[in-house]
Specification:
- The complex is a heterodimer of chains A (270) and B (208).
- Helices cover 82% and strands 0% of the residues of chain A.
- Chain A has 270 residues and is mainly α.
- Chain A has 2 domains: 3-51; 66-266, MetI-like (MetI-like fold), CATH 1.10.3720.10.
- Chain B has one domain (3-207): Rossmann fold (3-Layer(aba) Sandwich).
- Helix content of chain B is 34%, strand content 28%.
- In chain B, the strands form 2 sheets. A 5-stranded parallel sheet of chain B has the order 6-7-8-3-9, sandwiched between helices. Chain B has a 4-stranded antiparallel sheet with strand order 2-1-4-5, with helices on one face.
- Chain B starts with a strand and ends with a strand.
- Classes of the chains: A mainly alpha (270), B alpha/beta (208).
- Chain A: One of its GO terms (cellular component) is plasma membrane.
- Chain A: The chain crosses the membrane at residues 26-45, 79-105, 117-137, 143-165, 208-228, 240-262.
- Chain A: Keywords: Cell membrane, Membrane, Transmembrane, Transmembrane helix, Transport.
Chain lengths: 270, 208
Amino acid sequence: MSDKNKPDISPEHLRYLKKVKRKKQIILVTQIAILALFFAFWELAARIGLIDPFISSQPTRIINTIADLYKNGELFHHIIVTCVETVMGFLFGTLIGILIAVILWWSEFLEKVIEPYLVVLNSLPKIALGPIFIVWIGAGPMAIVVIAMTISVVVTILEVLNGFLGVDNDKIKLVKTFGATKIQILTKVVLPSSLPVMVNALKVSVGLSWVGVIVGEFLVSKAGLGYLIVYGGQVFQLDLVMASVIILAGAAFLMYRMVAWFEKLVVKRN
Amino acid sequence: MNYVVSVCNLGMKYHSLNGEIDALHNINFSVSEGEFISIVGPSGCGKSTLLSLIAGLMVPTTGEVLVDGKPVSETSDKVGYMLQKDHLFEWRTIYQNVILGPEIRGTLDTETKEYAMKLLDTYGLYEFKDKYPSQLSGGMRQRAALIRTLVARPQILLLDEAFSALDYQTRLAVTEDIYKIIKKENKTAILVTHDISEGISMLIGLLC
């Protein structure tokens, strides 16, 4: 029931709401405090010589590195390159994955034939295919996108197909009594009732796509956060490595929140 | 006498790797217009198979089903099928759910839409037409499911334990509710159930 129907809230309920809100605040404050303490301790340990900042870097040096990157105008270039590759990776991965899942749902014969291949592909670390793609496509952003896509596409196929096959048979029977064709069964029942599964697959794909992009950038790239990390490691500039990892964490977090928001928008009803 | 449904020597066998199952064997009966008959039997005695055959969802192994004098070979809009649960689609509003049949058949015109509205209005769901199924009570959902079946204007209704998913009290109310609606719309109906009391409560003709 909506709140509009009961304008007066009892004091007990008000106290309860306050308690819930307070609990939430305490959790948030603790989360921030842990992060702040971690960085403070890191900085302090580096200052008093407990750890060697040359190997472990330190927060102030990381901030300086990020500021330098910003001044050179490189910072956003690298972030955008990586983010675009990731978004393309998971979008293509999810779309192609759903498309293949639809085809396999359509033809039981194909599904049975393909099944063992999917199982092998699923257990194979897709990163191993990286060098092949680089040779085929060329050392560039396209190869990175394809690596990212390959990682997410297999999981998407399996998960979405499972969702399709799990659709209540009686719901399909119902539309069949209305004389539904196979394409109508797909569009009126299977796709809409699998929407939560598909959005969930998208969420998983985002995480996998990051893995694919960073590994891809390790292998071949002239820009991107993965490139910065690998470059920093090679020239022994841990400040650059740490700075890139922290930016990466922030970007991954933001992207996850955006997808979670998208999920909320799409899957309003369960 | 004109029969709306005639079942002649109907037989159905299911095949699986473990062998074959004789679900129905030599079934014969006829239903005249406006009749409401109940078929009572334990689970697994082939009641649902019988309804699926009448609805044209499956092809019988032997015999045939005549609906309105014509043999059934595929699903037709003459037959409305109500399943055990309401199976309203959660992603559609009540109105969108109710017009599902004509929408699939491609017969959704203004007249059908008006008919749907009229049925919603007559059976007290008009205010809920833009709500989603999860916002309705079990009884209301069952009524919406019946309206969805009626909007397709079937001559005959098949009810497959249509109320067994509800709790006992709701079921009593809904059973009466639905019975009244079916009588009012003057539909021929075949109800299958494992619950003898439910069968008798809707009774006009009984087949055991």
